[in-house]
Amino acid sequence: MGKKILVVSDNHGSMDNLTIALDYMKGQMDALVHCGDSEFPPKMLRNLVDCPVYLAEGNCDYYFTGDSEDIFEIEGHVCFVTHGNRYGVNWGEDELLDKALEMGADLVFYGHTHVPAYHVYEEEGVTVFNPGSIAQPRQYPPVPSFLVVELKDDGEVEPHFYKL
């Protein structure tokens, strides 16, 4: 049966597209991951869904209380969630990959760049995801996006990017 994780980032105080993504996944998601810059208090985000919520503090999250990053296990995967600004993600994923290896994570979720990304570092056994921005995209053409990561029973990780 596997598990489905909804991954979003960088809605910057806007509920519009976040609501669309949540409605799309209603009753289907086993976890919500927010990679930061929601600009909402964590409790508010947790009250939106009936599943575990894993959060990272973004550089614009002024109401954030708690850890700036999160690590959790699901379906045999160790997942690391960060906004990414503390790891220089605008210039590459090297620092982020090093941190994932240090933490023993095999799945990494980050935001900050507002551009969707998906990279498999096979040699290190780490897969890195950025859902892009659900409200303020920076890729060309600028299309808001979110990600659903399906964790299959056989261990396969299958990403699905959605554009709004």
TrEMBL record:
Is Aminoacyl-tRNA synthetase one of the keywords? Answer: no
Which keywords, in A-to-Z order, does the entry hold?
A: Metal-binding
| Cofactor(s) for this UniProt protein | a divalent metal cation
Which EC numbers does the record give?
3.1.4.-
Alphabetically, the GO molecular function entries are: hydrolase activity; metal ion binding
Where does the Calcineurin-like phosphoesterase domain lie?
A: 4-153
Q: Which InterPro entries match?
A: Calcineurin-like_PHP_lpxH, Metallo-depent_PP-like, MPP_YfcE, Phosphodiesterase_MJ0936/Vps29
| Annotated signal sequence range | none
Pfam family, any one: Metallophos_2
Q: Which family does it belong to?
A: Belongs to the metallophosphoesterase superfamily. YfcE family.
- PANTHER family this protein is in? VACUOLAR SORTING PROTEIN VPS29
Quote the protein name from its UniProt record. Answer: Phosphoesterase
